[in-house]
Specification:
This is DUF3800 domain-containing protein. It comes from Streptomyces fuscus. The chain is α/β, with parallel strands linked by helices. Helices cover 49% and strands 11% of the residues. The protein folds into two domains: 4-102 and 210-325, Nucleotidyltransferase, domain 5; 105-203, no CATH class. Strands 3-2-1-4-5 form a five-stranded mixed β-sheet, sandwiched between helices. α6 crosses α7 (136-150) and α7 (136-150) runs antiparallel to α8. The longest helix is centred in the last third of the chain and has 21 residues, at 274-294.
Length: 343
């Protein structure tokens, strides 16, 4: 998929790989009540002239008057052949592109248990068994309360998100049985001091890195994917407000700590770089396919076509959809939460 055999050579460490990147499915910090269930971040490694040729081919086939094409153009049923051509083995981006997926609800649980318990490994059992143990309505209340607890902005009283979260945990405790999920909930119930400290810290000023921001760790994961074998990586990313200089510095610092040779992140207007346009297509397509799998509306042909592109380090909790999308089961890939420190 990624040329790993080629990259895992001494020569790889002397080369610079440049990757065009974009994302799809951003709802800010509203991860449990937004428009999508999945966040996708894609990277495309191609020479600029080749990428431009493929973008032009897509325009010639679709023939839309839009000045900027998006994934939705390819996802229309009448353009199914173009979509399958783009993803197919032997197609224009096969072996030169990857997409990192984040299942948003699982990301919320993962972040909450990391922040409150220093034990994100407990997230997967809780996430998978929660709906069955507690019922979907109570589980939904827990997800919403965890999301509200972690998000930076809240219009209510300062203590309201903490009160709501621990009230929800107390409602779940009698239903949790007597196993690792029950143990996790009991430890959560005792973690109020950490939650109070976290909310108090937010009152002193916006954090450098919001805990509920899937974009920044996804960028680090994309850089890590392309640097396998020791190659240096430079990312050319679609410009957006979230990627401030301080946050780009955090990305670069986090990559260095992980042993990733990320040489920099350049922000561009997507229309000015055809690699970024192709990454935009792939991110939007992957996000829709993954959303459909989670919602029980999956297309087995498209899931199979997407599978070779999916980053094995994707942050994913749903076992059935993960198997169809090619995410290894039981691997927890989300990096540790960082609030006001780049460390």
């Amino acid at each position: 998929m990624t040329g790993d055999d080629e990259d895992a050579t001494p020569a790889a460490a002397r080369r610079l790989i440049e990757v065009g990147c974009d994302e799809s499915g951003s709802d800010g910090e509203n991860l449990t009540g937004g428009n999508t269930d999945v966040f996708a971040h894609a990277g495309v490694r191609l020479p600029v002239p080749d990428a431009a040729e493929y973008v032009q081919q897509i325009r010639d086939w679709i023939r839309s008057p839009a000045s900027e094409y998006k994934a939705n153009h390819l996802l229309r049923e009448k353009h199914r052949a173009v979509l399958e051509w783009l993803l197919a083995p032997g197609g224009p981006i096969h072996g030169t592109a990857t997409v990192h997926l984040t299942e948003k609800a699982y990301f919320v649980v993962d972040r909450a248990l990391d922040l409150l318990l220093d034990d994100p490994g407990a997230a997967l059992p809780l996430y998978r068994r929660g709906p069955g143990l507690f019922g979907r309505e109570r589980w939904r209340e827990f997800l919403l309360a965890a999301n509200r607890l972690l998000r930076v902005r809240d219009e209510g009283a300062p203590e309201a998100p903490v009160d709501a979260f621990f009230r929800t945990v107390s409602h779940l405790l009698p239903l949790s049985g007597d196993d690792e999920v029950a143990d996790t909930l009991h430890r959560l119930a005792a973690a109020r001091p950490r939650a109070d400290a976290y909310r108090a810290e937010l009152l002193t000023g916006p954090p450098l890195i919001p805990v509920l921001n899937p974009l920044l760790p996804a960028i680090v994961a994309t850089a890590a994917h392309w640097s396998r074998g020791g190659a240096a990586v430079r990312l050319v990313h679609d410009r957006q407000n979230m990627l401030t200089p301080d946050r780009i510095e955090w990305i670069e610092h986090r990559a260095r700590r992980a042993g990733v040779r990320l040489t920099g992140v350049e922000l561009v207007v997507s229309l000015d770089d055809p690699r970024v346009q192709l990454a935009d297509f792939l991110a939007g397509i992957a996000r829709r396919i993954a959303d459909d799998e989670l919602g029980g509306r999956g297309d087995p042909v498209l899931a199979a076509l997407l599978r070779p592109y999916v980053d094995p380090a994707s942050v994913w909790g749903d076992a059935a959809a993960g198997a169809l999308l090619g995410v290894p089961d039981g691997i927890r890939a989300a990096p540790s939460a960082t609030v006001n420190s780049p460390a």
